[in-house]
Write a structure and sequence with these properties.
Blueprint lengths: L5 H5 L2 E5 L3 H12 L3 E5 L11 H7 L5 E4 L5 H13 L5 E4 L5 H12 L4 E8 L4 H4 L2 E5 L2 H14 L9 E5 L3 H29 L6 H7 L9 H12 L15 H11 L5 H13 L5 H14 L6 H12 L1
Parallel strand pairs: 1-2, 1-3, 3-4, 4-5, 6-7
Antiparallel strand pairs: 5-6
Length: 316
């Protein structure tokens, strides 16, 4: 665990709403650092309290509540509920994958009741519990400083600048995470297309071994490549994985922002469109992308027969 302000951290008690793949492990990492965390999620059995109201009531003011629920309506409903349940001086940290433009509305609704707001893009997937999370935050200096012991506990070991950034005012954190995920789309697509080309030739006899050989000493080595190596060890031909690949929104938003700012992003755009194409027919490269998403984030992979059923249903 990285160096943190132990005195401030051990005095903190926070609430965490959302105990899915990310939230559950974040609660555990914070607890290991000495923070007392009360978690709530209506969809799991690991909640510490029975409701959002019970969570707020159990926390001593001034409170900090971290929200880790799916973007869109679930986040909006949670923020609306908190705006009524919390008190002036409390602070909400929104750590899901919300669109940056939504942060302005959340912050205004909370500010009207004297409640602070930070948007926090979180990267690290299912590996964050042990390795730490990269955190990109937006908000005021006052609010970020107040929450800094939490950020220090969650980020990877090492210099704060390597794993944490106060990117700017409200919205800057999620904007940074959006661009991060757009780049991620492009990187995964490049690895996936290389995998498909190796699979297509009869000249290369051991494709998984070639991919693994790239993982040390080459300019294309990365954690994503390590995860592809791991996926190929589990299933050398990815035969049990459908090429059907979902997109969670950030890639679309990145391309939309690129259009709005007249910034060319041909690689990210092509990677996004490749995911759309994956839903029309099975593709070896999209199987690799699907496998990578499962490895780093625990995202579900559709089996081949299930994907075919989805295609048929969409055509009806």
């Amino acid at each position: 665990m990285c160096s943190v302000d132990s005195e401030r951290l051990h005095a903190m008690q926070i609430g965490l709403i959302g105990l899915g793949k990310m939230g559950f492990n974040m609660r555990e990492r914070l607890r290991r650092s000495g923070t007392e965390v009360l978690g709530y999620d209506p969809h799991v059995n690991s909640s510490d309290v029975s409701s959002i109201d019970a969570l707020v009531e159990a926390l001593p003011p001034p409170r900090i509540v971290w929200v880790m629920v799916p973007a869109g309506a679930p986040t909006q409903e949670t923020i609306t509920h908190l705006s009524q349940a919390l008190s002036p001086g409390d602070l909400v940290i929104e750590g899901g994958n919300s669109r940056f433009s939504e942060d302005i509305h959340h912050a205004k609704a909370l500010d009207a009741r004297g409640i602070g707001y930070i948007d926090c893009g979180v990267s690290g997937g299912i590996w964050g519990l042990e390795n730490g999370y990269a955190l990109m935050v937006g908000g005021s200096e006052e609010h970020v400083d107040r929450a800094m012991p939490l950020f220090d506990a969650l980020r990877p070991e090492g210099p704060r600048s390597e794993g944490f950034v106060h990117a700017g005012p409200i919205g800057a954190g999620h904007y940074s995470k959006m661009v991060h995920n757009g780049i991620e789309y492009g990187l995964m697509q490049a690895y996936a297309e290389g995998f498909e080309l190796l699979e297509a030739t009869k000249l290369v006899e051991n494709v998984p071994a070639v991919i693994e050989a790239w993982s040390r000493g080459t300019v294309v080595r990365s954690w994503l490549l390590d995860l592809l190596v791991r996926a190929l060890k589990d299933d050398p031909e990815l035969s049990g994985i459908s090429g059907w690949t979902q997109d969670s929104g950030e890639g679309r938003w990145t391309v939309e922002e690129a259009i709005r700012n007249a910034v060319p992003v041909p690689v990210i755009s092509a990677a996004l469109f490749a995911r759309f194409a994956s839903r029309q027919e099975t593709s070896p490269s999209m199987k690799a992308v699907s496998a990578l998403r499962n490895q780093f984030g625990g995202h579900s992979t559709s089996r081949a027969d299930a994907a075919l059923d989805q295609v048929k249903a969409a055509a009806r």
